[in-house]
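Handout, page 2. Input:
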Amino acid sequence: MQRGDWVKKGSHLQAGIATPPAYSRSKVPAHMKTDKLALTRRFFLAAAPFGLAGCAATTGQGPSASTPSLSAMLAGPYGEIEDNGVTVPEIDLEDVDPRFLRQTVDYAGKQAPGTIIVDTPNRQVYFIRPDRKAIRYGCGVGRAGYEFKGGGYIGRTAIWPHWAPTSNMIAAMPERYKPLAGGIPGGIENPLGARALYIWRDGAETNYRIHGTAEPETIGTAVSSGCIRMFNHDVIDLHRRVLAGAKVVVIQGGSVGAA
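Output:
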């Protein structure tokens, strides 16, 4: 696939908040500007056992997405790359199930190009292209009882996001979270990873998102507090394709083609 296919040339997401678009194969909504968000591995994992819905609160502004670097093109899809000043390490693919590696697959379903489909049982994310193909990625999903259900749309995105605990988290565990009220900057050890795509519904953020991860070994598992995690390399790739207002469909069973 050439970069011109479903990748906006020039800037990435322009300023503003998306509203649910009318989807068609001939019209795609305009871009929005990205906002930064994040979390550290230690506190993300500490929060998971307490059943915190979504992936906590986020704030801040981020730079616009850059085009893939020369190092990224030479390294292959999962080699070491430099991204916005952060080194993303190579992923050891020896123990990765090939089902969870990025690939182009046939798609004969009804969803319009630009749609994201999350196949929860099979731990896979699909980005629908206009040529009856889809880019398929592996993902990790929410553990039982915390998985995201239904659908929505991408309201905003973030590059190397910044994270802050919600007021409910601080109230429930002030000793743990009050010192972090100002937030934690993004970086390679941040479990939200290199990008975050925020899922909105009915004009409001859901606190669920598609994001990267500092733990690539969790791809293909159900361990999160509800969000959908991807390899950093893959969420970078997905982020550069996605347009503001992109429809998100989450299925808990059945085929992707019937979604």
